[in-house]
Design goal:
It is built from twelve helices and no strands. It has 243 residues and is mainly alpha-helical. It starts with a helix and ends in a 5-residue tail after the last helix.
Length: 243
Amino acid sequence: MDRRVRLREQKTYTLEDFLEIIKILRQEDGCPWDREQTHESLRPCMMEEAAELVSSIRIFGQTGDAENMREELGDILLQVVMHSEIASEEGLFSWEDVVQIVSEKMVRRHPHVFGDVVADNSNTVLRNWDDIKKIEKEGKEWIESPLREIPYELPSLTRAPKIRKKIDKLYQKEASAQESIHNIQTMAADLEKEQNPEEIQRTIGEILWDLSNISRVYRIPQEQVLNDKIEDMIDFYEGPNKK
């Protein structure tokens, strides 16, 4: 039986079947859209799918219904397999290589599970993880500097506390939350009387930078906090009792 017919008529699928489906889609006589895709062209897809997965986790928390989360995890897997297949065609690496390297990483970064290191709490686990990760990154040509290792593509509200945490660890002691609060109060007063658009923009940047430090100190996820506030405002204006 032709493998395409077999796949079409199957009732259940395995990971191996899925890998085969993606290979078929990328063949000469496969899907025109799938054949055209590159690592670069798929970047927006991965960002959108990641956001949709996070959304599905929120929906699950609200409703207890996991159907959407299951679907979105499949879409993330699709992106991973597509990139792996493209890389295989380019002679860079294969799906098996991806599985191999992440398996090695998980074993290596959990010496308290797969070795004889003792880690009684999550703080110790995270500290060991960071130490091992630092060793792994040494000598990697694509890492320009410790601060630029944190991806530019992260949302700025997520990226800023990570940058500040590394500054605090590697270069100088960062300001306390109280110092940042004082800075914000001073800059807010300046902002009230500022007329120059460029200065207003610069001051807003400074305020956001200090807000990121407060979030870092108190371990508050800024991105989530702002999104929660946005949702509160939507509910306020468009809640079930609003017309």
